[in-house]
Amino acid sequence: MLVDDQELLRTGFRMVLGAQPDIEVVAEAADGRAAVEAAGSVDVDVVLMDVRMPVMDGVEATRSICARGERPKVLILTTFDLDDYAFAALKAGASGFLLKDVPPADLVSAIRSVHNGDAVVAPSTTRRLLERFSVHLPAQGGMEPPALSGLTAREREVLVLVARGLSNMEIATRLDLAEATVKTHLGRVLAKLGLRDRTQAVVYAYESGLIVPHSPG
Questions:
Q1: Entry pTM
Q2: What is the mean pLDDT of residues 19-38?
Q3: 77 has which bridge partners?
Q4: Is the pLDDT of residue 81 over 70?
């Protein structure tokens, strides 16, 4: 589903996606409220969601849609230079974000990636977004959330590397583990912390103070 108040942008995305044999645009909406209503009546796997829209913004729409379950996944559309909203949208359950001028090949790749369950778009870019908007992150005062104490040392290690933007394969290489083992550890991290997906794990690591903005590495 394409959600943006600019019809020209929706038309451009629809043309790009319509040329793909495995992707179908099943719905469009020009504001957040219409998107929420459509998501409840149309079978949708992935939503491309603008943040600045009339009636209901993309953050509230994302929160409503993601609260319903694992589907659909939401990808935020952002101009990056002005969207403090992108951070709030990630907290609300978005699986990642795309720049509005994203190259067509990257747009298609991102949608497929999320649909296949990776639920992340450029984790290193997500990290840069969190660094940029670190002013929004609460001070921890040296205390960490109690939920973190429920992680094993290995699970905690995996969470840190995910937050630093490493892929499962890169983490497996770094820790000398099988990639499947990394996926298992990450799955347990998400379950223990009550997180929806990998991107929310990145946000959590910053919010909890496990990763300090602007720190080396």
A1: 0.67
A2: 92
A3: 50, 98
A4: no
